[in-house]
Structure formats: structure tokens, C-alpha cells
Design a protein that fits this description.
The protein is about 40% helix and about 15% strand. By secondary structure, the chain is an alpha/beta fold. Helix 4 packs across helix 5 (about 105-120).
Length: about 425
């Protein structure tokens, strides 16, 4: 099939590469002029597993909106629905809550639909952007023409592993508006994989997408609560507990996201909880569980900050605190929604001293020697394998919420939850 992308950023371009890898003819458009440069130079400035290899041999073209529309049988729309930094989970939960910002999605859809209306045939347009329930009917359908045949098809992917997640999903979710568009989309997905397709109303699909993300948050919060309990009870080990629970695939459902560690992160999960907390207020829900999830994440991170300060004071109150790793997960260099950034901000609030931070993939430079000249409290903020081989100064304390740092002579290693 001939596939178009209205938006080829960190989500759109990897998905376009995945689709092309299955034999489809793909073109795209993005308002960012750098995207065309990435395609021409065959290099991207962010970590995305599999993307550099696919881009090296790709025939994807960056074209105008007009050419993209005329070329395509199906057009995917992965335009961002951004949020202010204070709603991404790197600071304490603000009292004020807001919906996502749909400005870019509305502008992109209006531009796309206007071009479709100029051409003779209807087009299948598949929106994959994350939105709250009611958004497409209230904010998108009124601004598109009759020839724009919509489906809502949000992806369940994570930045850093976008290509594999797209090619190997648990299921494909559709919010139907046009039956014809849905049938064409299902025909397309049959060329990608044989995973089940679940179809429902657009409003139900919008809710299903954000519910999926917030359920992941709840699992991480539960695992981290178990980690804290085990840390405070002699003889208990969180990995023993969670590894047993992972076997309960009938009731607990899945072993994923059931390891004690840092809080939920990324560009979707914290912000989706905060946005649903806003919706809970708008709908006057009987209880705002999404606020609970974010406060649980925040309070667990504050406990980690208190542990850092406690260990610092044992060495000496002028001892530096150094956070190693602050991307939101190991597979990416992105720091959006990073729980390590939340830890940094809480530490700054508590002791008025900003801890030093280093991440080999975010900073893109060799290990700064000055961070290892003198004893310090080192906190492992992201589970990068490289940290297990670092040489820590004698007299230091290493706080490891992932429990993978080996013993270091002359250092105290605290594996949280062990």
C-alpha cells in the first residue's frame, strides 16, 4: 500500500520505517525542517532501537502535504499533544490540572483535511495521537471535511523501542467513525502482523489508550511500595516477592512493570495520569484515583531523596549527591517525565543543593572524572548496564533501586528492597 505520515517526529518516523520494512511505499511531511535532513543524511539525533539500520536503506521521502495526500491510500497522523513541563512528572504534582494541548493536532488535521477536500477521492486518515475521551468528536470532527474518513488508532509503544512495539503489539485498537476507513485500516494491518484487532467507539478507544498507560503506573507504584516494605523489613527481598507475583498471569495479568525500581516515566504515563486527574474533576468523579497514583509516585521518590540525605549525613553533610542516569529508561536518551529528574527537584527543594547528574546517553560525553575524584553518595537513577563497571571512590555510598550494582571494595552499596 501507499502510506503517508502527517508528522514524522520521534513517533512518526520510527513507525514509518517499521511500515516500510514490511514492503509499503511511505512518504511523509513534517513542519520541522530537520526531519528532511534526518532522512537525507540517514541519521537521527535520538536513540531508537532499529531505526538507524532501517534508515540506512530507507526510500522514505519527505514531501509536501499536497504530494503526501495525492500519493497515499492511508494517512497516519502522529502529531504531538504536548503539555507544560510541570505536568510531565519531573516536579511535584501541581494543584492545578489541565487537559493536553491540542493546538498542533487541530492545525495539522485542518491543513490535511483542506488538502484532501481539494482532491477527488476520500482518504483514510488514522489519528494515533494520545487524547482524552471526547476530544476527537469535540475538537477534530467539526474541523474536517466529508472526504476525510477517520479512524482513531492509538499505538501502545514506548520511545526507544517504537519499531519493535509497533511490529509486535499485544493488540490493535480502533475507534471507529467511518466503517470504510476501519476496513481499509484492518486490511493494512494484516500485512504487518496477525495480532487481534479490537474495535469500539472513538470515545471508548480514547479512554482505553490512557487507561492502559495509567494501569502501568499503578503496577509500578505497587512494585515500588513492595520494594520500600522489603527495604524496611530485615530478611525480605523485593525480587523474590515480585518474581513470584509475575507467575500469577491469570489474575495479576503480566510480569511486565512488576520490578521494584524508580517511578513511572516517559512522555505518556505521568502526564496521562495528571490529565485524567483533570478529567476526574471535570466529571466530578466519586474519587480521583489518578491523583492517588501520582502522589504515590511522588511520595516514593521523596522517600528515596530522604534516604540520599540520610546517607550523605553519615559521611558528612558536605558530601555531594550524584545521580547517575536520568533518561526515563535505559533504551532511550529522552528525559521527559524522568523519575530521576523528579528526585533531583525534590532534593533541591529539601537541601537547597542541586545534585550533580550524569547520563552517558543524554550527555553524550565520556564519564566526567571530577564526579569520581572524592567520596560521594551515588544514586542510580537509570539502569544503564555501564554503571555496574564504574570505579567508585573509597568511602562512597551507592544507592541502587534496581539491585544490580556489585559490591565495591571500601564502598557501601545499598540495594533498595533487598
Amino acid at each position: 500500500m501507499k502510506i503517508g505520515f502527517m508528522g514524522m517526529g520521534k513517533l512518526g518516523l520510527p513507525c514509518a520505517l517499521a511500515i516500510e520494512s514490511k514492503g509499503h511505499d511511505v512518504v511523509g511531511y513534517d513542519v520541522d525542517p530537520n526531519v528532511e535532513k534526518y532522512i537525507k543524511t540517514r541519521e537521527i539525533p535520538y536513540r531508537e532501537s532499529g531505526a538507524p539500520e532501517l534508515l540506512l536503506h530507507s526510500n522514505i521521502r519527505h514531501v509536501s502535504v499536497q504530494k503526501m495526500v495525492s500519493h497515499s491510500d492511508i494517512i497516519f497522523v502522529p502529531i504531538q499533544t504536548p503539555h507544560d513541563e510541570k505536568y510531565e512528572g519531573i516536579t511535584r504534582l501541581p494543584e492545578e490540572r489541565v487537559d493536553f494541548d491540542y493546538t498542533w493536532l487541530q492545525l495539522g488535521m485542518a491543513t490535511l483535511s483542506q488538502e484532501i477536500e481539494k482532491q477527488s477521492d476520500p482518504k483514510v486518515v488514522i489519528i494515533i495521537s494520545t487524547v482524552l475521551p471526547g476530544t476527537i468528536r469535540e475538537k477534530i470532527l467539526p474541523i474536517v471535511g466529508d472526504k476525510t474518513k477517520l479512524c482513531y488508532n492509538p499505538f501502545f509503544i514506548a520511545m526507544g523501542t517504537t519499531i519493535d512495539d509497533f511490529l509486535n503489539p499485544e493488540f490493535v485498537l480502533f475507534g471507529r467513525e467511518s466503517k470504510w476507513a476501519e476496513e481499509k485500516a484492518i486490511e493494512f494491518y494484516a500485512t504487518i502482523h496477525d495480532k487481534p484487532v479490537v474495535s469500539m467507539s472513538i470515545e471508548s478507544a480514547e479512554l482505553c489508550k490512557v487507561a492502559y498507560n495509567t494501569i502501568i503506573t499503578s503496577k509500578i507504584n505497587i512494585a515500588n511500595t513492595l520494594m520500600e516494605i522489603c527495604h524496611k523489613i530485615d530478611g525480605a527481598n523485593v525480587d523474590d516477592v515480585t518474581n513470584a507475583l509475575k507467575l500469577a498471569t491469570d489474575r495479576v495479568v503480566s510480569p511486565k512493570y512488576m520490578d521494584g525500581g524508580m517511578g513511572d516515566g516517559g512522555g505518556c504515563h505521568p502526564r496521562d495520569n495528571i490529565a485524567l486527574s483533570w478529567l476526574a474533576r471535570e466529571l466530578d468523579l466519586s474519587h480521583d484515583i489518578y491523583e492517588d497514583l501520582m502522589l504515590s509516585r511522588e511520595h516514593q521518590t521523596q522517600w528515596l531523596a530522604e534516604l540520599c540525605i540520610e546517607e550523605r549525613d553519615k559521611i558528612g553533610e558536605n558530601t555531594p549527591i550524584i545521580i547517575l542516569g536520568y533518561s526515563f529508561k535505559p533504551e532511550t536518551a529522552l528525559i521527559v517525565g524522568s523519575p530521576a529528574m523528579l528526585l533531583k527537584n525534590i532534593l533541591l527543594e529539601m537541601v537547597e543543593i542541586s545534585p550533580s547528574m550524569y547520563d552517558p546517553f543524554v550527555d553524550g560525553e565520556p564519564v566526567p572524572i571530577h564526579l569520581f575524584n572524592n567520596k560521594a553518595v551515588y544514586f542510580i537513577g537509570t539502569k544503564h548496564p555501564e554503571f555496574a563497571n564504574y570505579g567508585f571512590p573509597e568511602g562512597s555510598t551507592i544507592i541502587d533501586p534496581f539491585r544490580y550494582i556489585p559490591n565495591h571494595g571500601g564502598c557501601k552499596v545499598i540495594r533498595i528492597g533487598e
